[in-house]
């Protein structure tokens, strides 16, 4: 039993005429008649009685007609759902982000996304790099906002923007009045750094090692907000990402490192073997525009 056979059958039953049914279905009458006959053979029963130019339903035809109408209605509904100009709607989207990115970047992105797609249920997951990648592979996340490096061919990785890592220090620090700093100027300073469990913490230590500089770490934390509070208390200085700067807060000053400015590259990552949805595509567009979002 095929969909077009049911469509032909319903047309004949409703119009009570093979010629008019063939015209409505845009096929020749012999072709329509052949398909009806094939349907009857498959079901093992007569569905229509031909009485001259008139067609009437048999008892079997009367039983099939409401069922065929329901089937065709569901088929037409499914086709309409998938043929929308923007594609089939997705009811949910799961977005992951690193803890050193989520509180600074995602509020603006989420606000923009909800303004455009309020009907999509957006779930946010904040986690470390390895855990986010594992969730992407298992399909429990659709997209993750992370930082390079990500060296795994199972993922699509799209760079979004690059941000500098700045020296953060209290405003009364002797180096605070300098517009730029060098590594030599901070070599002897106590540092408050992110724990190496964060990829950013590992990247900062790696950059220091490249400069043959081992920071004197007096405190490690898993939260940027904790590090900022330690800086305010004068316990040390740090290297923090630009997105962590609060322009309304003058209790911490941020200074670039001259010539050898460290940075990280923020990327959008997703499983290359999963099918993208329209909400996911729109989210990626919003992330690409992040630097212009107010």
Automatic annotation (TrEMBL):
GO molecular function, one term: DNA-binding transcription factor activity
Keywords: Activator, DNA-binding, Transcription, Transcription regulation
UniProt entry tagged with the keyword Zinc-finger: no
GO cellular component: protein-DNA complex
Any Pfam family hit: LysR_substrate
Keyword match ATP-binding: no
Domain HTH lysR-type: 1-58
Gene3D superfamilies: Periplasmic binding protein-like II, Winged helix-like DNA-binding domain superfamily/Winged helix DNA-binding domain
Record-linked InterPro entries: LysR_HTH_N, LysR_subst-bd, WH-like_DNA-bd_sf, WH_DNA-bd_sf
Family affiliation: Belongs to the LysR transcriptional regulatory family.
Name by which UniProt lists this protein: LysR family transcriptional regulator
Biological source species: Blastopirellula marina
